[in-house]
């Protein structure tokens, strides 16, 4: 496990606690991808940053903070705006021992990451948070259910509520980010977590674990089903200028 690589897509509300959770779980090689800058309005749930980081690229601030905690950490900041082309190139360049953590705030990007990880034979953990809770799912394509067995696809962009509109409880993002890190480390260790979805609602304080069966005709994992259609990605939830992006 010590040599495995973890690729964290998104260094915001889920990505910050996921990165800390990876450190706590013993990860020594991490790549972190984001093209946004630290915004003062999100500091309550983006727990790696403080006021001194406002305006700095998130990948640079996150890298600095993680190195302070773990000087021997091998961490690669990747300032990249993710779309189908850049994501496919990024995943194709990953070593076979990479585990991907999808920590963005874009529902359609989660499905794109999921599908491309299948094409590139990379295990992943997909997380999502809204209001008081959310869910995290460990996926190893070919072993158990995939994300599309549970969620067929992202809602149309015009129907998907934005983070700003619905709000996100900082503690929910923190709990789910750490849970994502735990699932990623477990996937890497070969534990029997592939196909497991854990849902958490901090109002109820009752986590739920489900292990759905594979869905016949699922476009994400049934080799006889047509591949899922992927339209252009909708806008991200973030509000700050994308000063750190490259393409
Ligand atoms: Zn499936």
Automatic annotation (TrEMBL):
<keyword id="KW-0808">Transferase</keyword>
<dbReference type="GO" id="GO:0016779">
    <property type="term" value="F:nucleotidyltransferase activity"/>
</dbReference>
<dbReference type="InterPro" id="IPR045886">
    <property type="entry name" value="ThiF/MoeB/HesA"/>
</dbReference>
<protein>
    <submittedName>
        <fullName>ThiF family adenylyltransferase</fullName>
    </submittedName>
</protein>
<dbReference type="Pfam" id="PF00899">
    <property type="entry name" value="ThiF"/>
</dbReference>
<feature type="domain" description="THIF-type NAD/FAD binding fold">
    <location>
        <begin position="4"/>
        <end position="218"/>
    </location>
</feature>
<keyword id="KW-0548">Nucleotidyltransferase</keyword>
<dbReference type="InterPro" id="IPR035985">
    <property type="entry name" value="Ubiquitin-activating_enz"/>
</dbReference>
<dbReference type="InterPro" id="IPR000594">
    <property type="entry name" value="ThiF_NAD_FAD-bd"/>
</dbReference>
